[in-house]
Amino acid sequence: MFVVIGGGPAGRLGAMRLAQAGKEVRLIEQRKIGGQCLHDRCMTVCALNDVARLLEYAQTQKDLGILDSVPTLSYPMLKRRMSEIQEKLSSVLEAETRRAGVEIVYGAEARLEGDRVFIDDEEIRADAVLAATGSRAAIPDIPGTSLSGVYTYQTLSAMPDLPRRLVIIGGGVVAAEFAHIFRAFGSDVEIVARRGLLCDLDQKMRSAVLRDLAGVGIREHTAPRSIEGGSRVRSVLLADGEELAADAVLLATGLVPRSESLQGLDKRPDGSVIVDSRMRTSVPGVYAAGDVIGPPYLTPAARREGVVAAENILGNDTVMDYSGIPQALSLRYDYAFATAGSSDGCVTLSAPAPAGPGSFWDVPGGWAGFAQVRVDPESGRLIGAAAAAPGASALLSYLGYLMKRGITVDDFDDIVEVHPSTDGIYPLARYAAGVLKKKE
């Protein structure tokens, strides 16, 4: 029998692959199938952001005189309906997993001591183990994080209604996405970022993101000293002495691998389990995948890691390749990018995205997004691509794969695109091909 610990993207996909190969598989899940992606993170952002975008688009069309009003949001009803749909999606995933032949055990606590597997303190025999125990929200070491009214992405569902003033501590994707959402909902939002907001993003992409965060107060290179309050949060005190009034605080300060139940394995100081490119841990027969092995903390990467682990458990030598995996954040537009190789010596080209579904009514404001490509001038190979436009996330999913396969800008001559579309990469790649031909 094979044991999988954790029913998130990595564990579920790994378990299904093993079961489809005819193996007996037992998946242990303390909570619900689908993991944090479905219940706390990705799908929560999708649900909330769909409503945020609707409100923003309605406001744009009201400003243009097309609509006479903007809908009024019921935040309690939004939470209720969102939870109902997440439960429905979880039941769909459960049915799919069971149909693949996986036995699911809910509510049990699984742990490892080297290669020994315990379920609710009962030791069981396992031919191999896949540990996919995920992560949890990192809590910064500042006073006041335990006050009522302080939330993480995991506890945000407990917030009863919209805060009038929300302070978000953090400078990553989660901070930006929730800032956009709650600003669109009508809250006054302040971001406090110790380093900077999305400082690792390409500067052109970051500038576009900041357009979508207009109206959000952004304090960069600023450290929070404490969260103040009595029975509940009242404000956030900054290191420079400034005090930001707050009805709620969202901690968006990263993730911590959840590996306490995995003993006897080599780990890094942050608790992430060390694996090789085949998802093997330091203990023979024990594999790990997903957030528990540390960054990049991406659902598509976790899914692939789970499958790679399963393939190697089955004896099929398979290596995890992180090149070309797209990343994205969702604001008013999608912001997505992928890289497949070194950008040293590459030519970078950018251009406005064409107006299309989701961006037509933004044209009067002088903005419909942008596209960017990075091209190796010697081979014409597309090394990187980025897009800020409605639908960019779907576009980069396929483009990332094609880049990994070695697509060149010349190959875009044979592509007949869908129209209308917000895809600015297609014409930009064709333009790059023409530029390179002229140089030759």
TrEMBL record:
Residues 3-306 form the FAD/NAD(P)-binding domain. Pfam families: Pyr_redox_2, Pyr_redox_dim. This is Dihydrolipoamide dehydrogenase. The keyword Flavoprotein applies. The keyword Cell cycle does not apply. Residues 368-423 form the Pyridine nucleotide-disulphide oxidoreductase dimerisation domain. InterPro entries: FAD/NAD-bd_sf, FAD/NAD-binding_dom, FAD/NAD-linked_Rdtase_dimer_sf, Pyr_nucl-diS_OxRdtase_dimer. GO terms for molecular function: flavin adenine dinucleotide binding; NAD(P)H dehydrogenase (quinone) activity. It comes from the Archaea. It comes from Methanoculleus thermophilus. Keywords: FAD, Flavoprotein.
